[in-house]
Design a protein that fits this description.
Blueprint: E1 2-7, E2 10-16, E3 21-26, H1 33-48, E4 52-57, H2 58-63, H3 65-82
Parallel strand pairs: 3-4
Antiparallel strand pairs: 1-2, 2-3
Length: about 90
């Protein structure tokens, strides 16, 4: 995992290449409608590269870190199951 990593033309908060996972931690600026539209566009482009994006607010990280970590772990577990070479057998 790296902090503030470049992925194509985007700078993301955290990126794990092996898991193809971006984690964004959003402050209050991400609550306005214009920024929300930009964020959705970024997520769609990153998804187009096969990269999942998880977004959390600063408040979630500060007040509910266990839930944030649980969500990340669950996403990673689901991703591993979906890409398992034994899938469908």
């Amino acid at each position: 995992m790296f902090r503030k990593r470049s992925v194509d033309r985007f700078i993301v908060d955290f990126y794990c290449h092996k898991a193809k996972l971006v984690i964004e931690i959003d402050g209050e600026v991400h609550e306005n409608e214009e920024q929300l539209d930009r964020d959705q566009g970024r997520c769609a482009e990153l998804n187009g590269f096969g990269i999942m994006v998880l977004r959390f607010t600063n408040q979630e990280v500060l007040e509910s870190i266990e839930e944030v970590l649980k969500n990340i772990n669950q996403t990673l577990s689901n991703s591993r199951r979906e890409t398992s070479p034994l899938q469908g057998i």
